[in-house]
Automatic annotation (TrEMBL):
GO terms for molecular function: DNA binding; DNA-binding transcription factor activity. Residues 3-58 form the HTH deoR-type domain. It comes from the Bacteria. The keyword Transcription regulation applies. Keywords: DNA-binding, Repressor, Transcription, Transcription regulation. This is DeoR family transcriptional regulator. The keyword Secreted does not apply. InterPro entries: Carb_Metab_HTH_regulators, DeoR-like_C, DeoR_HTH, NagB/RpiA_transferase-like, Tscrpt_reg_HTH_DeoR_CS, WH-like_DNA-bd_sf, WH_DNA-bd_sf. It comes from Deinococcus cellulosilyticus (strain DSM 18568 / NBRC 106333 / KACC 11606 / 5516J-15). Pfam families: DeoRC, HTH_DeoR.
Length: 251
């Protein structure tokens, strides 16, 4: 079998099964695991999959710049944002991560909501500025332009004085076994720190983020309080998340 044929087979199997187990595939094709691993490395370098221990998972298509992310799954993000906004109660302190989905959350907040929002995203802060009944706390730090959020020691220092009720975390991948992930190492560390300050962490994930992985792990999925997903997702896609001790909210 030619290399190109093997790679097409791997991508086809990945799409059908949601994962590749290198040992199993090598036995099926009568090839060495080294050959399969080499194919996986090359496909990963092209951004076509994400290597994990023992094989590969689909790569998140959302590891792109902010402008590109604005064009992805707009209708789904609006639905998820509305469902998330309904979880916020007056008087709460809410930590909002950066991300295009969270823009939709802000746009669905009730006009009379009285809450305090803390964010390290200038984009989110501008959106929150329209809600005059809410307090807005903007955390400072070095601007990470890929996601348009502040990061670094200054961000963590400001965060250390706040205990949010809710943290809405932005991610690029949600996988039942491989956890929550994103495409930048420092951002992954910051998201974990933000999550550890909050009483509950919530993730909004459209279909393109479910069952996929990015390079840097934030935390296991079981550390979430709530995972908000599209109700149109088939049960077999969501079933791996059942029994993880989290609330699965279908929007």
């Amino acid at each position: 079998m030619l290399t190109t044929q093997r790679k097409q087979l791997i991508l086809g199997r990945l799409k059908a099964d949601g994962q590749i187990v290198a040992k199993t595939l090598s036995q099926e094709l009568g090839l060495s695991e080294d050959t399969i691993r080499r194919d996986l490395r090359e496909l990963a370098a092209e951004g076509l999959l994400q290597r994990v221990h023992g094989g590969a998972l689909p790569a998140s298509p959302t590891v792109v710049d902010l402008q590109a992310r604005k064009q992805i799954s707009q209708e789904a993000k609006a639905v998820l944002g509305k469902a998330a906004a309904n979880l916020i109660q007056s008087g709460q302190v809410v930590l909002l991560d950066g991300g295009t989905t969270h823009v939709h959350l802000v746009r669905h907040l009730p006009a009379d909501l009285k809450a305090t929002f803390v964010t390290h995203s200038p984009t989110i802060a501008v959106e929150l500025g329209e809600h005059t009944s809410c307090e807005v706390v903007l955390l400072g730090g070095r601007l990470f332009r890929h996601s348009m959020v502040a990061m670094g020691a200054a961000t963590l220092e400001a965060l250390s004085h706040i205990r949010p009720d809710l943290f809405f975390m932005g991610v690029t991948g949600v996988h039942a076994q491989e956890g929550l992930s994103t495409g930048d190492l420092e951002e992954a560390h910051l998201k974990r720190a933000l999550s550890q300050r909050a009483a509950e962490t919530i993730v909004l994930a459209d279909s393109k983020k479910i069952g996929v992985a990015s390079q840097y792990v934030i935390a296991p999925v079981r550390e979430l309080g709530t995972l908000i997903v599209e109700k149109s997702l088939p049960e077999e896609v969501l079933s791996p998340f059942e029994g993880l001790g989290i609330t699965l909210l279908r929007a």
